[in-house]
Amino acid sequence: MRRILMAMLMSVMVMVCGICSAQITEKDLNIGGIYIGQSMDEIVAKYGNPIRKEPWGAKGNAYVFVINGSEIAITLSKDRDVCGFSIKGNSKLILPSGIGLYASMDSIIKTYGQPDFNKVVARTDRGNIIHFGYKTPERKYSPDLDNSPMIYDMITFIIDVNNNISSIFVSTEVVSDVVMP
């Protein structure tokens, strides 16, 4: 009996430690069949041409596609490979973990553990809007170059004043661009 209780206690401890140290992996970095590094040609072949192009800050333009009735904005690298994408509004697309828009901040933490970064980006009379996110282990642009900058693939959630997700961004960021605590 004592051995059974000890085994059960160890199982619970392992599960709790697993939740506390959760980290995203490459398999988490896709929404609606779009993933980091995918070619624009592959996306167009699968989903058709984008419905519009819109400005996307320093990253140039985003190309907006409709997938399963939901819009997804995609940014491209110089090689025309996906380097980022986002969903917002009424999108029904979800991450492989099952997290989607309007999920609670608590559900994100239960799924991925404590965030790698958490920064208030706007204050309103109803509460704060927060960038809340996770990154993969760092890697280099090129394994052949010792001086290449470190980059992270990451998921960033924009949390609204009701502590729910209003936008999800999946992107590749240079280490100097990543907001860290």
List strands and helices in order, with pairings.
Blueprint: H1 2-20, E1 30-31, E2 34-35, H2 40-47, E3 52-55, E4 61-67, E5 70-76, E6 82-88, H3 105-112, E7 117-124, E8 127-135, E9 139-140, E10 150-159, E11 165-174
Antiparallel strand pairs: 1-2, 3-4, 4-5, 5-6, 6-11, 7-8, 8-10, 9-10, 10-11
Structure description:
Helices cover 19% and strands 38% of the residues. With 181 residues, the chain is α+β, with helices and mostly antiparallel strands. The protein has one domain (24-177). The strands form 2 sheets. Strands 3, 4, 5, 6, 7, 8, 9, 10 and 11 form a 9-stranded antiparallel sheet that branches. A two-stranded antiparallel sheet has the order 1-2. The radius of gyration is 18 Å and the shape is globular.
